[in-house]
Structures are given as structure tokens and as C-alpha cells.
Amino acid sequence: MFPAMSKPQPLLADPGMVSMPPMPFAMGAGGRPVGMGGPDMSLLGGGHIDALDYERAMERFGAVQGASMLGGLGGYDPNYAMGGGFGGGGSGQPDCVLMVYGLNVQKINCQKLFNLFCLYGNVLRVRFLKSKEGSAMVQMSDREGCERVIRMLGNTKLHDGKIQLSFSKQTYLQDIGNPHLLPDGSLAYQNYTGSKNNRYNGPDAVNKNRAQPPSAVHYFFNAPPNVSESTLLNAFAEADVVGPDKITTFPPKSEKSSRGLLFFSDVYTSTEALAATNNSKLPNPNGKAPYVLKLCFSNASPDY
Predict the structure, then answer these.
(1) Whole-prediction pTM value?
(2) Maximum Cα–Cα distance for the chain, whole Å?
(3) Which pLDDT value is given to residue 18?
(4) Is residue 148 classed as helix, strand or coil in its secondary structure?
């Protein structure tokens, strides 16, 4: 009789590695596909790479070795994200990470992306990629939110750039303990899980939010009661963006807040203004806690 053999335990994954998806081709020495001139991915787990994999290689192995290992920029395919996933997904469905390209990082940050994307679904995490300027990843809470973002914001012009969107095959975005800084001094990673400024938190949320593509008109709500035009205009001035040309207020639904429409000169100006001032704080004339101004695009006629 042979002695009983214990079942071998699986090796623990290196937290700096990416889990490998099934390979559609045989792998040779150094992690290269047999018969294909792909980059040497033996140190990252093999397979195709996306912007986040490229950045990880740069940070872990240095610019020279990392670029060599990935085959230089020629080995980087921004339209293909490696399968498998990162830990720290938190709440939300898997496979709800978007790749965002065409961003002007001199003028865009995590909060501005949140302010736009939260119009179409709950945003969990936003990360700008250090090694691929103008690129970011956004994790939404569900697939429907991702699809609304792509449908509504794809090819939108913003701060001298044009937003390009696609699904990543990353399962989740990983929490980052020490993110780098963006040119404006803000952190390149933000976790918005549980943020009160997410709007899709009930069964009627889709109908209530009435998602619209960017337009030259904003619907505003949750402003202080009897809010003045000067208070609203000051919010845009403080954010260093062009404010509306005309403001129309509606009869209040309650004495607690006010609502109305903001009319801008064009869609481009309107989009920049919303990204900068949505969820901004307005002074509370009757208490210490400020009001959080809510904006969304409206299909109202400019001649309203």
C-alpha cells in the first residue's frame, strides 16, 4: 500500500500579479505565444495587456524593464483588457469597469468624472492611469449603468478632448493606498462606494433620473429655498467655468428647496459646467449644513 498523499494546496497568488485567463494558444518560454511575436508577459501572468497592466509594469519593474517586458508601446492594446480581476471590488456587480480615453488631465479629475458619470448610474471607483496620460478607469455598480454611460457620453467633447469609452474585462478596480497626484493636486484615485451623491439607489431610480445626453440646458434641484441667481452664478465662478446665460426657477415643490433650469450658450460649455459644479455645496441660509446642488442635462427647449 502506498502512503496516503495529501492533496496539494494551491499556490497563493502574488497580490501584484494579474490572474491569467484561459489562453487560446500554446505558451512557449518566457510567456510568449508560440508562433506569435507577443510581449514577454511571464512576470505579469501572460496574455494581452491593457492600460492598467501597462501601468503596473512601469511601477513595479521601472520604465526600461517594464517597457521591454511589455514589448514597448507596440505590445499595448488599449482595446483589450486582461481577464481575471483585482480584489477589493466591494459592493456592485462584477465586470462593470469602463476604460475612458481622450481626457485632458490638465483640467479633468476624479470628481469631475464622477459628476458626469453619476447621472447615468452609481459610480464606485475612479482611477486615472499614471503611465497612460489621458486615460482613466471607472467602476460602476451595474452593467446597465455602464451601458447608459457609453450610450450617453460616448464621443462627448470635454475640455479640449473627446471622451472615448469601452468595457474593460477587469472584474473590479483595486483600492490604492497611495495614489499619485493629478496636475490640479487632487488624488488620481477616489472611492465613491456609499457616496450620498450617487442617485440610482431605488427601484424607481431609472425613471426618476430620466437620463439625457449632454445638452445646453441643465435641470437643477436641491438648491436652497428662494435661491438667488447670484448664488447660482457664484457656484460656476468658483469652479472657474462659464455659467448659464439664463436662469428660470420653478414653483417649489416644498419650502425646503428650489429647482429650475439653467440655459447655456452651447452643449460644450454646458458639459464643462456640469462636470465642475454638479454636487457642489451652496450656503444654507437657515442652518450650518450646506445644500448640495444637483444638476442633470435636460431636453427642455432653449426657448423655454
Answers:
(1) 0.72
(2) 91
(3) 36
(4) helix
